[in-house]
Amino acid sequence: MSRPTKIVVIGAGFAGLAAVKALRRNPDVDVLMIDRHPYQLFSPLLYQVATGGLPEDDIAYPVRAALPGVSFLRGDVARIQPEKNSLRMADGTDVSYDHLVIATGSVGTTFGIPGVEQYALQMKNIHEARAIKQRLFGTYEEVQESRLPRESLRVVVVGGGPTGVEVAGAVAELQRSLHREYPAIADYASITLVEAGPRLLSMFKEGSSNHAREELEKLGVEVKLNSAVDRMYESDLHLGTGEILPTGTVIWAAGVAAPEKLGDIGVTGPGRRLLVDEYLRMQGSANVWVIGDSAAFTENDAVLPMVAPVAMQMGRHVAKTITAVITDQPLPAFVYTDKGQMATIGRRRAVAETPQGISLHGTAAWLAWLGLHVGYLAGGRNRVSVIADWGWNYLAWGLGPRRAVIE
Amino acid sequence: MSRPTKIVVIGAGFAGLAAVKALRRNPDVDVLMIDRHPYQLFSPLLYQVATGGLPEDDIAYPVRAALPGVSFLRGDVARIQPEKNSLRMADGTDVSYDHLVIATGSVGTTFGIPGVEQYALQMKNIHEARAIKQRLFGTYEEVQESRLPRESLRVVVVGGGPTGVEVAGAVAELQRSLHREYPAIADYASITLVEAGPRLLSMFKEGSSNHAREELEKLGVEVKLNSAVDRMYESDLHLGTGEILPTGTVIWAAGVAAPEKLGDIGVTGPGRRLLVDEYLRMQGSANVWVIGDSAAFTENDAVLPMVAPVAMQMGRHVAKTITAVITDQPLPAFVYTDKGQMATIGRRRAVAETPQGISLHGTAAWLAWLGLHVGYLAGGRNRVSVIADWGWNYLAWGLGPRRAVIE
Predict the structure, then answer these.
(1) Both A144 and A187 in a single domain?
(2) Helix/strand/coil percent split, chain B, to 5
(3) A221 and A129 co-located in one domain
(4) Which residues of B touch A66 (CB under 8 A)?
(5) Where in the sequence is the domain holding A368, given as residue range(s)?
(6) A173 assigned to active site
(7) Inter-residue contact B40 to B63 (CB < 8 Å)
């Protein structure tokens, strides 16, 4: 009998976990999962951690517990060496593979706009979400104590995609609850959402975009369209329109891209993502596969978006293609099944669209969003906590206390 | 009309909050609460945060939300200046008062035993609890990856009081759940509880002490009595008996004392606490009051213990005495009403004693402990979260996943 095929998966996000879950049922393969953190992050809810709605523990899930029986290595990959079929880890050790699956996700990108790297807050990992939370709540304290000017209470969110809309709505709801704890300064808080293009949620239909904008405005968000960011300083944001926005906190939700390192090992396309063929294989390689936000997969002349449903479907599919390679079967091509899209705006405010062309706005869309997110949360335990927290938020909004923010 | 009397309360713990809650109903006083953190910590549950059972957000509660209408100042007090009736803050500003209430709590103390300060982990604030959690879970990862020896999986808790018993039991339960995630190393984990005196829980009756010891041993805790700590090195603990315990983590629960600074302003007694008269007034002062763990109050020739029920009763009482001073009424003397005591050992394992001499052991005591702690949790929101987390723990113990540990 030959030795089992060794498959290494880098990245414990939606894509990597889906791949490993599908592969571990195959007795002829050895799977090793590598990530720099021993937990999976439920990133669609990062904005709730950033705005004090959920404790960070609720959206992280221990990988070893999720994958009993699978080998897991916590570590940083320094270099992928396709010519040697091995990885060089940051601690100097090498890890060899027969097949490599790259699922390293994406990071926030600033498009090189001056000052953004330095002054804006990204929201792609738990440390960044924690930094936003500490900035927001720390500012309330500092302004209350007159150590910062009231202008610091102005928050700007850059980027009118689903993440920007979600975080702007959540900041607006947070600001509406400030009167209880900071009555003297609450009226000076404001939230502005800045979008370079002519409408919010550009991948949705125009009706949904307009609905999102109206709902945000009802919550108190000032929406500025056709307003690209030109440059940023410590306490103001300069728009291409010539307008200058004084601000204490800028949350950057204007775009994501794959990590720069990927460019060293293959040909990259839009968003620095690695180009893959119809089987999710890296162009020019026989045994390196790319899935999730790291992969640029073209379907009907468009590159698939960097969202969790694409990542999960790719993860499950790559398990099938690698199994086909090992067993000398013909490879199945990847076909994305569009399940529709949704974005939440606030409590009982959301938009959703099905691939059949049906749009939902308001409470129905919000309940669908809620059900889907609770359903996808990896751990039963986290599901219980999130339901308790959200139930409380819902029942006590405006009356009940928020959670404490601990430095 | 004369100006309102200005009362400054330092410390937002059980004692300080109880005082402020009682004082704020009085229209003739202005109350200012000062703490270096804008949240109240529910410290009896710190050991659950330290062992991954509860997220830290569940045991912290925003002070401003707890005290609507009360002025709150976040800051460090550098110096108390009784001769000027004012405080010097760390940022150089002065805060004046008519009456001062010192409720600054306690910190862990090492009794000057060599190496303890440097190598043992204290558990008196949320940052210390977080450090214990990261050490415990970080060690599992490092040993799994062979970066630390298996001896690092040995945990020692020093101190056989309620806190030591609680944390030793919680570590034992955590270690019993390791098989799922770390099957290769789980068997090397161990937990030892070291106590200098002849029995655990010395303030309980002997039956309760023995019960606690038996229950801990059933959970897998090695209990070493009559074993004072002599000195400590990075990876071993030397006992007075001559025994040397190799260990990766030492949790120090052997004693607490008031902060050293208090000695600068008054006469201190046992545990560096400020001596107070029968009205909770600092000896030799007319308008400085001391409550909670900062106060050494003698009753029936014994100094009251540093526990939450004493602190809360003192807080409520000092509000009455200060009001009496202001209104020229005779001062009421403080009398402590003993409600009994309890300590939890693990899931469905606890001991409780009433002042009438009734002892409860096992599930009944545990349920009493549970009800009392959930009842005392400051925020309705935290109560909901804690119940959800504990409910989950209880239902899924040994099956369900624990929470992730985020650096």
Answers:
(1) yes
(2) 35, 25, 40
(3) yes
(4) 401
(5) 116-255+340-396
(6) no
(7) yes
Shortest CA distance from A39: residue in chain B: B404
Domain C-terminal end among A297, A326, A355? A326
Contacts of the segment B273-277: beta carbons below 8 A, 24+ positions apart: B273/B303, B273/B306, B274/B102
Task: Tell which B residues from 73 to 92 touch A, by Cβ distance under 8 Å.
Answer: 73-75
Same domain, A10 and A145: no
Lookup: tokens for B61: 């509660």
Residue type, A72: F
Q: Residues B160, B273: one domain? A: no
Domain boundary among B326, B354, B370: B326
* Residue A155 near residue A248, CB atoms below 8 Å: yes
Q: For residue A115, which of A32, A253, A234 has the smallest C-alpha distance? A: A234
The sign of the dihedral angle between the CA atoms of A387, A392, A394, A398 is negative
Can you give the CATH number for the domain in which A317 is found? 3.50.50.60
Residues A88 and A19 in one domain: yes
| In a domain? residue A54 | no
Inter-chain touch A385–B387, beta carbons under 8 Å: no
Distance from CA of A402 to the nearest CA of B (A): 7
Question: Residue B65 domain-assigned?
Answer: no
In this complex, do A384 and B391 lie within 8 Å of one another by their Cβ atoms?
A: yes
Is residue B49, in this structure, part of any structural domain at all?
no
> Which B residues 377-396 touch A at CB under 8 Å?
379-382, 384-385, 387-389, 391-392, 396
Rounded to whole angstroms, how far apart are CA atoms A21 and A16? Answer: 9
- Note the pLDDT tens digit of each residue in B123-135: 999 999 999 999 9
B243 and B351 inside one domain = yes
Q: Which of A35, A41, A57 to mutate to test the interface with B (most CBs of B within 10 A)?
A: A57
Q: What is the mean pLDDT of residues B355-375?
A: 79
Sheet strands side by side (includes B71-74): B71-74, B29-35, B5-10, B99-102, B288-290
Chain B contact present for A205, CB below 8 A: no
**Do residues A248 and A148 share a domain?**
yes
Mean pLDDT by 10 residues, chain A (407 residues): 88 94 90 93 90 85 82 92 94 96 94 94 94 94 91 97 95 90 93 97 94 96 97 95 96 92 87 95 95 95 91 96 95 92 86 84 79 67 63 49 62
Most B CBs within 10 Å: which of A133, A392, A393, A395, as the mutation test of the B interface?
A392
pTM: 0.82
Here the CATH number for the domain that contains residue B174 is 3.50.50.100
**Residue A68: its chain B contacts at CB < 8 A?**
180-181
> What was the ipTM of the complex prediction?
0.72
In chain A, how many domains are there?
Answer: 2
Q: Do A405 and B62 touch (CB under 8 A)?
A: yes
Shortest distance, CA A46 to any CA of chain B (angstroms):
14
Q: What is the mean pLDDT of residues B72-92?
A: 93
Chain A residues closer than 8 Å to B37 by CB: 406-407
